[in-house]
Every structure is written in structure tokens, then in C-alpha cells.
Amino acid sequence: MNAHFIVGAVVVIVALAFGVFFRRLYKRIARRCRKKDCGRTDVKRVSKILLPPDEFVSARSPQGKWRWFIRRPIKLTFTVCKCGWIELVKIDTDPISLWHALWVTWFHREQYHLEDPPLIEAAQRKLRQLYLGGKHSSLDPQASDTPPLSSRSLFRDYYREISEAIENK
Nearest 5°: phi and psi at 89? Predict the structure, then answer.
């Protein structure tokens, strides 16, 4: 046999072995519980697919045309730890193939139902964090966004604008 062929085969096998090793190492690190003082590496991924109200798994679109992809799903991926920690880690809006949607319908029907209250709460918490920012993650639900009304708060910005205008002249 050719020596270059043997060396190339050994290099490919070693590269694949390193790739598998580093992928497994990444999965152990990336899929660990982030709750303080837990650190378990046996967290599970839970996937949910949300279809729009007028959408259903069929070879025909709501408009009656043939299709190979369902274009408007929302796919949510949660990580769930045995300690009770649940986090929404991925929100995906890419189209899914009709074959994938049918496979889920036949073998994993629970992915189409987001009824578990802890998962709903985790999704709401993540969406609140994304749209309101991190500083509003611990707001009391009964708190109001409106500051208390006082004459001082009414004229505070007015005085600041006047003082800036006087300084700039």
C-alpha cells in the first residue's frame, strides 16, 4: 500500500477521534445546570413546536397550495434539571420540513403541546428578559411603571433643560 494513503487514513481517524472527544466535552460543559450550587451535567433538553392558530400539519398550506415546509412555526428548546431548574435556551423561527412535522406528529406528539406551567413560566421569564432587559427581571408583578406624582418630579427635567441651555450660551 501507498504510505501516503496510510498516513492520511491515520490522520483522518485521529482528527475524527479528537472531534468526537471535544464535542462530548463541549456537551458536558454546555449542558450543565446553571442553578447556583447544582452543577449537574445530566440536564435534559425539551423541545416544543408552536404552530400558528390557522396552521396544521398537512401537505397543503392554509391557502390550499402544496408545500414541503411549514414556514411559520416557533420552536422552543428548554433545559430541565432534576433539581427543578428550567430555562428557555433557544427560540427558533426557521421553517420545518413537512416530514419532520409528520414525524413529530406520529412519534412525539407532546412536542406540539406547551401546557406544563413551569415551561410556560420559563418562557415568559426569558421573553420578559429579552424584551425588557436584564434590569427588569426581578420586578414585582404588582409594581407600577409610573413614578409617583409630585411637583418636584414634574419640574425636575424642566430645570435641567433650562440649566443646560444657560450653560451652553
Answer: -105, -15
pTM, full prediction: 0.62
Contact (CB, 8 A) for 23 and 32: no
131 membership: H or E segment, kind and range: helix 117-132
- Compute CA distances 100 → 17, 26, 105, 109, whole Å: 30, 27, 9, 12
- DSSP annotation of 142 reads T
**Beta pairing, strands 74-80 & 86-92:** antiparallel
Sorted by where each begins, the domain ranges of the chain are 1-30, 40-138
The three cell numbers of residue 144 are 407600577
Report the distance separating Cα 6 and Cα 66, nearest Å.
51
Quick one: cell of 36? 447556583
Residue 78 to residue 120: CA distance in whole angstroms: 10
Single out the residue of 96, 48, 106 nearest to residue 68, CA to CA: 96
User: How big is the chain, counted in residues?
Assistant: 169
Q: List, for residues 28-85, the tens digit of each pLDDT value.
A: 777 777 777 777 777 888 999 998 888 888 888 888 889 899 888 999 999 888 888 8
Integer Cα distance of 154 and 158 in angstroms: 8
Distances (CA, A) of 89 to 45, 50, 64, 69, 128: 9, 16, 35, 24, 14
